[in-house]
Amino acid sequence: MAIDDQLNQVQQRINHALMHYGHPSNQVALLAVSKTKPTAMVEAAYRAGQRDFGENYLQDALEKIEALPLEGIVWHFIGAIQSNKSRPLAEYFDWVHGVDRLKIARRLSEQRPADRAPLNLCIQVNSSGEPNKAGVSFAQLPELAQQIAALPNIRLRGLMTLPAPTADFEQQRAPFRALRKALEQLNHEGLTLDTLSMGMSADMEAAIAEGATIVRIGTDIFGARQ
Ligand SMILES: *Cc1c(COP(=O)(O)O)cnc(C)c1O
Question: Above 90 in pLDDT, residue 1?
Answer without folding.
Answer: no
